[in-house]
Amino acid sequence: MLRMTSPLNTPSPAVGSATDERWSPRLWGTLLVLCAAMFLDALDVSMVGVALPSIAGDLGLSTATLQWIVSGYILGYGGLLLLGGRAADLLGRRRVFLIALAVFAVASLLGGLVDSGPLLIASRFIKGLSAAFTAPAGLSIITTTFKEGPQRNRALSIYTTCAATGFSMGLVLSGLLTELSWRWTMLLPAPIALIALVAGLRMIPHSDREDTRGGYDVPGAVTGTAAMLLLVFTVVQAPEVGWTSARTLLSFLATAALLAAFVTIERRSASPLLRLGVLRSGTQLRAQLGAAAFFGSYVAFQFIVTQYMQSLLGWSALQTALAFLPAGLLVALSSTKVGDVVDRFGTPRVIATGFTFLVAAYAIFLQVDLTPRYAAVILPSMLLLGAACALTFPSLNIQATNGVHDDEQGMVSGLLNTSVQVGGAVFLAVVTAVITAGGHEGTSPASPQAVLDSFRPGLAVVTAIALAGLLITLTGLRADRRARAPQPSVVVAASAGTRAERAEPVGARD
């Protein structure tokens, strides 16, 4: 049986060496399959937004029901990522990835054919659930196939750029497809996922056999998954039912209790779903917090901007999508270059630069008014946003996965994706609450200026979230300077430290 390439194993001749300067056709094929799956995950998050009005009109859905078409996907995706990442480590990354991709294709097909709101929401939840397994499995396949360093950095820059491109291009594609029918936005991922599945069966190398020497952490899986599901559900519903309502407060209390139980179980488990020791690393912690701040601010920004362009400027869905196009194009064009930038400057510097661009993009957009100012405000913001996505997202993935042992790559990948999704859900809910608190809903109808005035505090909060991400990143620059100083034994020492930490007795880990 072929074994996946890893920093600690010799690459299989049948797969092609990821340590060589030239990648074999099969290695490129593997990367393209994984990129296709990540592209679909990101595409599905953004593409449904523009189609919501058409879905509501066709199926007769209320606003409360309609929002669950978006929230159902987020709930399945964000709630099960930790379980998906650990399942990839234990059951085999290839197996988990391909099964989940097949489920994604079937759910996409059903989503375009159903004729009721509840069935559509169910299909969206199943798609989110399958993405919760493909995302960490795909990322861990890359990190165990490509040797840590320039080769892995190049692969991750291409991979994560596909995610950012999918998120950006989803708006454009949905604007075009919705002109035909909203069903095409649901059906489009199905054939792409099927093609990727067939290619994956041939291209993706077989991973190691499942490792269950420590047993399955069933209590950790139950409490961890329940905590993430309840947390995402609570923050999605909070703007509607009220942040201080008894239901919201009790849900947060229950989430805290589940998380406390989860931490206790993980500290004592011989084979934990999440080894808490990984969070003792400042580099790892900064990557997780940075990912939450980056994606959370972007999702909230996109939500405000699409409302501003369509509600206040009167732009069509397609015009709104095209306004985001410069950011998507910039990300796509830079896909093969970011790895070289990271090799030269290191992830902390690149991430800090990306967050600086992000803060500048949001700050510039604060200048918008009721008159379109595309050349002076919107275009510069989108170009800075594209540069920020191109630099930051790949670098965060590289920073999170470097120095992690092969059999924990799925776990760390699941943790990173959980930070991304939970950050998106939490910060979008916070920004929505800030906008709602503007009070324009009390007027009937609200004046355009009142609506714009309610958007400004939301944009200010978005900018503050990005600024917090920048400050978190800056704390790592001093450590990065020390690490980049000439220390020939640093890699060996880090590897030995990782192995020693993993060999600690269970009671001494945390």
Automatic annotation (TrEMBL):
What subcellular compartments does it reside in?
Cell membrane
Q: Where is this region: Disordered?
A: 1-20
Can you quote a single GO CC term?
A: plasma membrane
Family matches, as InterPro entries: MFS, MFS_dom, MFS_trans_sf, Sugar_transporter_CS
Question: Membrane-crossing residues?
Answer: 31-52, 64-84, 96-114, 126-146, 158-178, 184-204, 216-236, 248-265, 285-305, 317-338, 350-368, 374-393, 414-438, 458-477
Organism of provenance: Streptomyces lavendofoliae
The keyword Cytoplasm is annotated on this UniProt entry: no
SUPFAM superfamilies to which the protein is assigned, alphabetical: MFS general substrate transporter
Lineage, highest ranks first: Bacteria, Bacillati, Actinomycetota, Actinomycetes, Kitasatosporales
Protein name (database record): MFS transporter
Report how it sits in the membrane: Multi-pass membrane protein
